[in-house]
Specification:
Structural class: alpha+beta
Order of helices and strands: HEEHEEEEEEEEHEEE
Helix content: 25-40%
Number of strands: 13
Distance between the termini: 62 Å
Number of helices: 3
Strand content: 35-45%
Radius of gyration: 21 Å
Number of domains: 1
Largest sheet: 7 strands, antiparallel
Shape: elongated
Amino acid sequence: MMLKYKNIAFLLALLVLSVSCSTKNDLEAFKNAAYHLERIEAVRVNGIDLMAKKSPEDFSFSEAATLFSAFSQNTLKTTSTLALHVDLGEENQDRTMTITQLKWQLLVDDQQAASGIVQEPVELKNGLNTISVSSPVTFVEENGRADLNKLLQLATLLNQEEGKRPNVTLQIKPTIQTSVGPFELPAFINLKP
């Protein structure tokens, strides 16, 4: 009888060990992957298409009022479609990953300008991934208030000529679904443009 319990305990230990090794390998593969933002296909903030805006003059009075009101109440929400290339390396090409939560931040000239959290699950695989995400947007506060000029600067960044554009970096910090539960990567990952 005691031998039977030892065998069951041994089999359970082997099962836990194999699941842990698989989870560790999955995490390492996606932690060490190269991420490249191929293109931004669409960006809408509170329903306003920012891809069509090149300067503050391109905003109608109604659009400016909508953005200002949402900005003042801290209720900005963005919906984006991104083409994200993930290179896992040859040995990990068949792996997929479900991201259950995605923290992001946008840096302009190495200073945080905005941040948010994507709450809906996103599936990533090796190669080009086209993902649509929605997220509230929080702007960095200066002197106790968010700066409206930052909003206008960010709204027109996408269509500025490369030489005139400040250094913009998008960083992500995913929470990955593993066989033992969700796991948040310990640091932000820079998405290379």
